[in-house]
Write a structure and sequence with these properties.
54 strands; eight-stranded mixed beta sheet; alpha+beta
């Protein structure tokens, strides 16, 4: 976690003074900007005179830790007489230092405190200060007795003076009661006598080599100051930022990344494309760049952002991923040529001509810090030869037998860009934990790698390297911060890249400050804690170094220009920039515009749900969505109507807008037409009652009739010549429920007089639908009013519209139906038995109920239990009231599978993994499955409410109830490969039946073909018990891990359990068990060196991974310490009957159990 925040306020920090307010906490110390020294003790030990300016300067201006070069020293004394007559605020005479004017600022009676306050400030007049002026000053203010210069009081500080911070000093310089009338601190005289004192200002102007010396970084612009930008920290991604900056400034690497073909895959899940985007933004942006696109393409979630990972592992995985992206391109070997060298591991016999060796590629070198003073010693340590003699002789084959030999490694070549990982973190056996090594460890600007190469290596070019980058860790093992020092140009400056901040750096900061070890004073002495001799250790030290071969520097640091970037990348950013600019402009002008959502006859006819439309959808989502207009608030309704009419292809005179309002029943319906077209859109919006939308919502009506002058004839709200408004009819909307297609469609609108009967709507509907003058015999029309989504009521044919309380904007729904013994076909109808038994809805009210409970459910094949190729992902529109059996029928019908053979699983919303299987219950519905009772509480928070996994079973669910499901871990290659299988075994079966099911499911050779299979249980990463072949499966514990493996040949026929020992894995402490445990055969009299060979074969772990394992006997007692084994130990004699054999090595899966997971890159 990044907890080294340089901008975090210190609880003891001095408050920054401004010209208006000079308030500073007493004896405050700002760790970065101010160092105050209290002088009383020093005065007693080394008395000096205030008039001895040279000696006093050495006394009050101590050496600075930053060691900035001194440009000039000046001393100025202000003689003050008549102290009691001074004003509240006084300025001393202006004097020059460093070519700039300065003066002393005095508050003789205190700046809102009971002490005198003294400051140093620049002496510029308001209009004289140079633009962006700054000056770094170390200074001291000394108040002394003019009659006795041995009596004085002083404070020292350093500060970066700017226009904004024009003065700096000490609000609590000295208590007023100590100034006059009493001897000062052991002296016989006071500081002030005869109402007079002197104040001397010692001003040391120092060089600001980096431009940020003592900078507070308020309003700091990295691009403007350095030409470079930083990377934003997402949480704990400073380690990633430092590595990315290092790779970015390896210019040849950047060019290679740009050459990866991504124009056909501009996906944010493609890590090569997102890395290209990141590099391009670092190249062109004026502000810090975010890494979120890149980390998302890695597949990282929020929890990964707050976990610091190993930089070396991240670098290797990133290189591997980029190499994969380059396969099949002309540059597929470019990264290896740049970053990869060759190293030979050998065992060479001393007395006979026999050598065993292997040559491997390396991408970085891990160097020991512990025990070495510098880089060259670490390299020498790395290639140090180990002599194998005595009992440790090397077996050189049947010809030479056991021989004395030298074992070691030697480099055959180094890469052009050499990454060196300094092992600052190591396991401390004494403390039994990982520790950071803070010892001083030096590394050079240049070094010659030739001494570390084998004799016959290619030396046609010098193997000299120069430093290009230093990646730094500041902090301890558990908390810390990462940043980088890089030199972008061959002969350029060093810069510090600290997340989003980039600053120029001095060579001292790059080298000395990152060697680690104790702080050193400018004179070379080690800084210690006050009153103690304990040295103060630096928290920061280099952990990764980047060197470039000197003969290849020009090639590696080749300039990267705009033309080197992929054209499609430049075009994409140009498009995104234009889109951002358009959005910015839209935001700036947002207050000038308002949205208008228009429902038309066409959109209503495309709408298949309740009301006239859904206002929260867009036309690209739903063809029935309203048409959206963005218009000026001051536009008139007449201008708005003209725009809408143009889109409808109509004369604006024939288009009339109705205000749509929210009714009390939460529906939105047309209320009344807008008669005054000279109103502005904003005025109209304001007058619309109870608006719940940020946009104006209207219905656009098109007149069906016009008079001879082309003026529209409106059936209602027709304006007369005398100005009166005639309202003869009400506006109704018609919807048709099509029983055949099981859809609801808008038909249009009609005007009807209130005194008309409901049955008078039938001829109107027949005409609208084009069904002729009457329907076939026995077929009628059923009419309903859609009052609101949850209330659809039948209309009585003989009643008038007024009696049925119909009004403007109401919706009438109708459908055709077969009704017997009915004269008009109005009212209730009963569906046939066939219709009831099918899924077809024959009644509009049933369909409205379906709409109310309509749910789109996504069905995905189970990731472990279904064939993705055979069974695809699909979506179904279902009713949330649908039963489990009906759900199975629907899914079975879609994938052409018997519904009895389908099993469903809910889905974990956090990680997408399957949850438990859904139980088939009589009261189980789609709603209860997806949102079970208590949904939203802790146990259901992570369940998806719109998706299910499905599995196609070989047997029916009924038969499945007779089986026991057992998850078995099959070990096919030692313990390194674990395959998981879910097996179904008859509940009355035994372990032998389980083995037969495993052979069939895993498609592995039978026991007769490949050897006996044994089954055992593991609990808490330790072997629990072997399961006899006749052991009933119903008794297998559900809380243990069931493991199956082939019985090794050496164990065939061994029956005595005392010849076995339980083996388990742990990290540092036996209580931190991990990995797969197993039983291992031990042999009487066998040295552990031979036992290890059998263990290596049994484990399936080879090479360096096996060499890193430490072996120990672990007693069964809870707090016993492990007894680590040597090659000459005999396990059979060392271990007792109940002991374990522990394998101590790093748990690569530990973070996965804690929620982190191993470092991975997906995209």
């Amino acid at each position: 976690m990044d907890d080294q925040n340089p901008q975090a306020p210190s609880p003891n920090a001095m408050l920054i003074d401004t010209p208006e307010e000079h308030i500073v906490e007493p004896n405050g110390v700002d760790n970065d900007d101010v160092a105050i020294i209290t002088p009383e003790a020093d005065e007693k030990e080394a008395p000096v005179l205030a008039t001895d300016y040279k000696t006093m300067k050495e006394h009050v201006l101590p050496a600075l830790i930053d060691e900035p070069p001194i440009l000039e020293d000046q001393v100025h004394t202000w003689e003050i007489k008549g102290w009691r007559n001074l004003n509240k605020k006084e300025h001393g005479p202006v004097f020059q230092a460093g070519g700039f004017p300065w003066r002393i600022l005095l508050f003789p009676y205190g700046n809102n405190v009971d002490q005198c306050s003294i400051y140093l400030e620049h002496g510029f007049e308001a209009d004289e200060m140079p633009e962006k002026w700054s000056c770094c000053v170390q200074f001291a203010l000394v108040l002394w007795n003019p009659n006795d210069p041995s009596v004085f009081h002083h404070h020292s500080a350093h500060h970066r003076f700017t226009k904004e911070e024009s003065d700096w000093g000490f609000t609590r310089f000295l208590e007023l009661r100590r100034l006059f009338n009493q001897p000062y601190d052991g002296s016989t005289r006071p500081l002030g006598e005869n109402d007079s004192v002197n104040i001397s200002a010692y001003v040391r102007i120092v060089e600001d080599e980096t431009g940020v010396l003592w900078h507070n970084f308020n309003n700091y612009d990295s691009k403007q100051e350095t030409g470079y930008v930083g990377l934003k920290n997402q949480g704990a991604t400073c380690y990633l930022n430092s590595l990315l900056q290092s790779l970015y400034f390896t210019n040849a690497f950047r060019k290679i990344i740009y050459q990866i073909p991504t124009e056909q895959d501009e996906s944010m899940m493609n890590s090569a494309y997102t890395l290209q985007r990141l590099f391009y933004q670092l190249q062109t942006s004026n502000t810090a760049v975010a890494t979120s696109e890149l980390t998302k393409s890695f597949g990282w979630e929020t929890r990964h952002i707050f976990e610091q990972q190993d930089v070396q592992e991240l670098s290797r995985k990133l290189m591997e991923r980029m190499e994969e992206k380059m396969k099949g391109t002309p540059h597929e070997k470019a990264l290896a040529q740049m970053f990869s060298g060759k190293i030979k591991t050998f065992i060479s016999c001393i007395n006979v001509p026999y050598e065993s060796s292997r040559v491997e590629d390396f991408w970085d070198v891990q160097l020991n810090v512990s025990g070495n003073k510098n880089l060259l010693e670490s390299f020498q340590d790395y290639i140090q030869v180990e002599k194998l003699d005595g009992e440790n002789q090397y077996y050189a084959g049947d010809e030479y037998k056991l021989q004395d030999a030298n074992k070691g490694v030697i480099f055959q070549s180094f890469p052009d860009v050499l990454h060196l990982q300094l092992k600052r973190f190591e396991y401390d056996i004494q403390r039994d934990t990982m520790m950071k090594i803070n010892a001083r460890y030096e590394f050079p600007e240049e070094f010659d790698a030739a001494p570390f190469l084998e004799k016959d290596a290619d030396r046609s070019e010098p193997w000299e390297y120069e430093l290009h980058g230093v990646l730094v860790h500041s902090g301890d093992l558990n908390t810390g911060h990462y940043y980088a020092f890089l030199k972008p140009a061959k002969d350029g400056n060093w810069y510090k890249y600290d997340d989003d901040k980039v600053t120029k750096a001095r060579k001292l900061e790059v080298l000395e400050d990152n060697f680690g070890g104790p702080f050193r004073l400018p004179n070379g002495q080690i800084r210690t804690l006050p009153q103690k001799k304990t040295p103060i250790m630096r928290p920061n030290s280099a952990y990764m170094l980047v060197y470039i071969r000197k003969s290849r520097v020009d090639q590696i640091l080749t300039p990267v220009t705009e033309e080197d970037t992929p054209p499609h990348l430049r075009n994409r950013f140009a498009e995104e920039l234009a889109a951002r600019e358009a959005r910015r402009k839209e935001r700036e002008e947002q207050h000038l515009y308002i949205g208008v959502k228009v429902v038309t006859e066409a959109t209503f006819q495309q709408h298949g749900g309740t009301d006239l439309t859904y206002f929260d959808v867009t036309p690209d989502q739903d063809p029935g969505a309203p048409i959206y207009y963005r218009v000026l608030r001051q536009d008139t309704l007449e201008q708005l109507v003209a725009k809408i009419a143009a889109d409808l292809g109509q004369d604006p005179r024939r288009v009339r807008l109705w205000i749509m309002v929210n009714r009390q029943n939460k529906t939105v319906r047309p209320d009344a037409p807008i008669m005054d077209l000279q109103l502005t859109v904003e005025e109209t919006y304001s007058k619309a009652t109870a608006q719940r939308d940020e946009s104006l919502r209207v219905w656009a009506e098109v007149a069906e009739e016009v008079n001879e002058d082309g003026e529209p004839i409106w059936p209602s709200y027709q304006a007369q010549a005398n100005g009166a408004i005639v309202k003869d009819n009400i506006l109704l909307f018609l919807k048709w429920f099509d029983v055949e297609s099981q859809t609801l469609k808008g038909v249009g609108h009609v005007y009807v007089r209130l005194d008309k009967k409901v049955e008078d709507l039938v001829p109107v509907i027949l005409k609208k639908m084009g069904w002729g003058e009457k329907l076939p015999s026995g077929e009628k029309i059923q009419l309903y009013e859609e009052i609101k989504p949850t209330m659809v009521e039948g209309l009585r044919g003989k009643e008038t519209l007024k009696t049925e309380e119909l009004q403007d904007g109401d919706i009438i729904c109708f459908h055709r139906t077969h009704v017997h013994k009915s004269r008009l076909g109005l009212g209730e109808s009963k569906p046939s038995e066939d219709a009831k038994s099918s899924d077809r809805l024959t009644d509009a009210r049933e369909y409205y109920d379906f709409l109310l409970h309509r749910k789109v459910v996504r069905f995905c094949p189970h990731p472990q239990k279904a064939d993705v190729q055979q069974y695809p992902q699909f979506e179904l529109v279902l009713s949330s009231k649908m039963s489990y059996d009906k759900l199975s029928e629907k899914v079975g019908e879609h994938i052409d599978v018997e519904p009895t053979h389908i099993r469903f699983y809910t889905i974990n919303g956090a990680n997408g993994n399957p949850r438990t299987a859904v139980k088939r219950l009589s009261n189980q519905t789609v709603e209860r499955i997806l949102t079970p009772p208590g949904y939203g509480q802790m146990n259901h928070l992570n369940q998806l409410s719109d998706a299910l996994y499905y599995e196609v079973l070989d047997i029916s669910l009924a038969e499945l109830d007779t089986k026991k499901s057992i998850k078995v871990t099959w070990l096919s290659e030692g313990i390194t490969k674990e395959d998981q299988y879910d097996l179904l075994v008859t509940k009355s079966g035994v372990v032998e039946d389980l083995i037969e099911a495993l052979v069939k499911k895993a498609k592995i050779p039978s026991e007769e073909e490949a050897g006996q299979i044994r089954v055992y249980e593991v609990s808490n990463n330790k072997w629990y018990r072997d399961l006899d072949r006749n052991y009933p499966v119903i008794s297998i514990n559900e809380y243990t891990t069931v493991v199956a493996e082939r019985k090794p040949e050496e164990e065939v026929g061994v029956i005595d359990p005392n010849q076995y020992i339980t083996v388990f894995h742990f990290q540092n402490e036996p209580s931190r068990a991990h990995g797969m445990s197993f039983r291992f055969l031990i042999k009487e009299g066998e040295p552990f060196s031979e036992t290890k060979k059998r263990l290596e074969k049994r484990l399936g772990i080879k090479g360096k991974s096996f060499e890193k394992i430490k072996f120990a006997v672990v007693r069964r007692a809870q707090f016993s310490r492990p007894i680590y084994l040597q090659d000459d130990d005999i396990l059979y004699e060392t271990a007792e009957r109940e002991d374990y054999l522990g394998l101590d090595h790093v748990d690569r899966s530990r973070s996965a159990r804690n929620g982190g997971g191993d470092l991975f890159l997906k995209g």
